[in-house]
Specification:
Radius of gyration: 16 Å
Largest sheet: 7 strands, mixed
Number of helices: 5
Number of strands: 7
Strand content: 15-25%
Shape: globular
Helix content: 40-55%
Strand order of the largest sheet: 1-2-3-4-5-6-7
Low-confidence stretches: none
Number of domains: 1
């Protein structure tokens, strides 16, 4: 399957589900290939995309840019939409409940829309932070937001310190990134 076809199929699935496609950098979007019935990735032979511990360890170790997106789960109440993206100074791991038998579909859709909006802000602002010197060389902002694990964020330079802000994790991580950007602008 060509990259264009895989990308179009991904977009069609999200349209069918009436969900916004989580934001991805254009170069990663174009590199996606279908890896399963409802999954796409720029990685070959990677472990399961919901293996959060492995993803965080890779992000700390300086793995190159990649994206993974799709739907996964099991049973009647453990399905989720996931989007993992590592792009320069940002490692973002999202898992939002979707298509569960007992969930309110509109509420879940609204949550995914909000999560996608915050993800777009982080993806847009993280490169600016790196360009301004607001992050040390090789440093990453690691953000884990999910409905099946504790949401949290940290700077890769502080691996022992997680900020656990629950539903406010994306907001708090964005605020921390913006504070670093403002401090860097103040120094120049």
């Amino acid at each position: 399957m060509s990259h264009v076809t895989a990308n179009e199929e991904l977009q069609e699935l999200f349209r069918t589900e009436k969900l916004p496609l989580p934001p991805l950098p254009e170069e990663l979007t174009q590199a996606l290939v279908k890896t399963g019935p409802h999954s796409w990735s720029t990685r070959a032979g990677a472990s399961r995309p919901d293996d959060l511990d492995s993803r965080v360890a890779e992000a700390r170790s300086g793995i190159g840019d990649y994206a993974e997106i799709g739907f996964a789960g099991h049973g009647i109440n453990s399905w989720f939409m996931y989007c993992n993206v590592v792009h320069g100074p940002l490692a973002l791991f999202l898992q939002c409940r979707w298509n569960n038998a007992y969930d309110d579909e509109q509420r879940a859709r609204t949550r995914i829309e909000g999560v996608s909006g915050f993800a777009a802000r982080l993806l847009a602002e993280a490169p600016q932070a790196a360009q301004l010197g607001a992050l040390a060389p090789g440093e990453r902002l690691i953000v884990c937001f999910g409905d099946h694990f504790p949401s949290r964020w940290q700077w890769s330079s502080e691996p022992g310190h997680w900020n656990q802000d629950g539903d406010f994790t994306l907001l708090a991580a964005t605020a921390a990134l913006r504070a670093r950007i403002a401090a860097a602008k103040g120094r120049s």
